[in-house]
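Example S7 (C-alpha cells).
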C-alpha cells in the first residue's frame, strides 16, 4: 500500500487523532498562557522574582519529555492527565519570559500618565501595561505552541491522545508494509497542525495588535 492509499483508507482515524492532538495542545496552551501571564504579572517588578520565575520554568524545559511523562504516570496514571500536566509545564517558559520582558518594556511615562489621571494599579495593568505587552506575549504563545506540537507526540507513551499514537504504532512495527506510512502520516499531520496554529496566531495578532505597535 502506498502512502496516498494509506491516507485514503485511514483518513477517519487520522482526522480523529489530529483533532485530539490539536485539542490537547490548544487546551494546554490556554492554561499555560493564563498561568504564564499571571506569573509574569506577579514577578516583573522585582528583578530577583523575575529571574527566579524564568529560571524555574527554564529548568522544567530541560527535563526530557519522555522522562517527565514517565515520572507522572505513577502519580496521575495513564492517558490525558500526564499529557495535560507535561504540556502545560513545558509551555510556561516562553510565555513567562515574554510576559516579563513585555511588561518591563512598557514606557514608564505612559504608566505615569495613567497614574496622573487617577487610574488604580489594577486599572493601569489591565488597560495600559498588558495591552502594550501583548505583542511579545503573543510571540511567546506562538513559540510555546510550536514546541508543544512536537512534544505532544510523546504523550502516546502514556496512552495519551493525538498523532503520536500513529507514529508510535509505526515505530513499533518497523519492517511491516505500513510502518513508514504511519510514521510519515503522523509527522506530516503534526507539521500541518503547527502551520495552521501559527497562521491563526498571525491573524490574531493582526486583529488584536494596533498597527502602531506591531513589530
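Recovered sequence:
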Amino acid at each position: 500500500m502506498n502512502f496516498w492509499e494509506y491516507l485514503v483508507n485511514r483518513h477517519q482515524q487520522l482526522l480523529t487523532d489530529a483533532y485530539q492532538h490539536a485539542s490537547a495542545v490548544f487546551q494546554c496552551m490556554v492554561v499555560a498562557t493564563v498561568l504564564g501571564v499571571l506569573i509574569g504579572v506577579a514577578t516583573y517588578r522585582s528583578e530577583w522574582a523575575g529571574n527566579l520565575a524564568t529560571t524555574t520554568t527554564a529548568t522544567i524545559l530541560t527535563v526530557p519529555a519522555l522522562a517527565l511523562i514517565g515520572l507522572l504516570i505513577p502519580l496521575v496514571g495513564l492517558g490525558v492527565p500526564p499529557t495535560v500536566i507535561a504540556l502545560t509545564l513545558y509551555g510556561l517558559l516562553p510565555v513567562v519570559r515574554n510576559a516579563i520582558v513585555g511588561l518591563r518594556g512598557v514606557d514608564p511615562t505612559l504608566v505615569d500618565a495613567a497614574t496622573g489621571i487617577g487610574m488604580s494599579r489594577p486599572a493601569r495593568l489591565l488597560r495600559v501595561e498588558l495591552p502594550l505587552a501583548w505583542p511579545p506575549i503573543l510571540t511567546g504563545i506562538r513559540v510555546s505552541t510550536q514546541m508543544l506540537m512536537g512534544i505532544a507526540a510523546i504523550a502516546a507513551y502514556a496512552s495519551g491522545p493525538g498523532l503520536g499514537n500513529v507514529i508510535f504504532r509505526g515505530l513499533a512495527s518497523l519492517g511491516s508494509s505500513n510502518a513508514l506510512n504511519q510514521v510519515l502520516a503522523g509527522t506530516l499531520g503534526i507539521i500541518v497542525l503547527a502551520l495552521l496554529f501559527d497562521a491563526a496566531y498571525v491573524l490574531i495578532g493582526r486583529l488584536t495588535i494596533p498597527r502602531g505597535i506591531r513589530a
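Notes on this example. The mean pLDDT is 91.
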